[in-house]
Design goal:
Number of helices: 10
Strand content: 15-25%
CATH architecture of one domain: 2-Layer Sandwich
Order of helices and strands: HHHEEHEEEHEHEHHHH
CATH topology of one domain: Gyrase A, domain 2
Number of strands: 7
Shape: globular
Distance between the termini: 25 Å
Helix content: 25-40%
């Protein structure tokens, strides 16, 4: 099953890590401290101690990755999924129509800025934010009779950044995302694995989705499509 998840996304995640590595070649670490010069550290009871702790990758629930093939092109899509996706929007997305919160499920034009320097514009593109669950008000007023299943691929809060595609630009964007301490690069197939574990997709749909992406002929596409959408819960309807 894990092989299925990684089959059609490993190349994107590998490229994400490769581009990050490319963007960090100039980073150097200072190793001149000696043991003879101890550094003062805050005590465990100090609030600053807890705020300065760095979470391990296993503790970081919000992930990001390039979701389109790397290279030169008109559009590249970078996906962020997890509980801090909204925080990423607040720190990196500057809508052309100023607002404090994104309008869910609506693609809007924006500037994507560096989280450490809001004056540094990474690209002028578009963004769309998917809420992780439906509120009762939305269900009653807009989607009467519709299932209350979370309306994103992973069922988590999800942010998609639509930018131009180029080696230097993607390196800058992925490097900017890596500066947020609560984010980590997605593992191969992790978005699909989360969709499966949350019940968004069943195993038949996961297999069908992998076959659909790998399809090279019309017949392969038709067969894979039937396997992908055989279940009653079709995530494209609920997005």
């Amino acid at each position: 099953m894990l092989a299925t998840f990684s089959r059609f996304t490993s190349c994107f995640t590998f490229s994400t890590r490769h581009v990050l590595q490319y963007s960090r070649r100039s980073v150097h670490f200072n190793t001149t401290h000696s043991l003879a010069c101890p550094v003062a550290r805050p005590s465990c009871s100090d609030p600053e101690y807890h705020s300065s702790l760095v979470h391990s990758d296993a503790q970081k629930r919000t992930i990001y990755a390039l979701s389109t093939p790397p290279g030169k092109g008109g559009v590249a899509v970078t996906r962020v999924s997890g509980p801090e996706a909204l925080e990423v929007w607040k720190r990196m997305v500057r809508p052309h129509i100023s607002r404090l919160q994104p309008t869910p499920w609506r693609l809007e034009r924006c500037q994507i800025v560096h989280p450490e320097n809001p004056n540094e514009v990474v690209d002028d593109g578009m963004s769309v934010f998917f809420k992780g669950e439906l509120s009762p008000q939305i269900i009653v007023s807009e989607f009467i009779g519709m299932s209350s299943a979370p309306r994103s691929f992973t069922t988590e809060p999800t942010l998609e950044l639509h930018t131009h595609s180029g080696k230097a630009l993607l390196a800058a964007l992925l490097n900017a995302l890596s500066r947020l301490p609560f984010l980590r690069p997605a593992e191969p197939g992790e978005f699909t694995r989360r969709a499966f574990l949350s019940g968004r997709l069943d195993l038949t749909q996961v297999e069908g989705l992998a076959d659909l992406i790998d399809a090279e002929t019309e017949e392969q596409r038709k067969v894979a499509g039937r396997g992908t959408w055989v279940s009653e819960t079709v995530y494209t309807i609920n997005i």
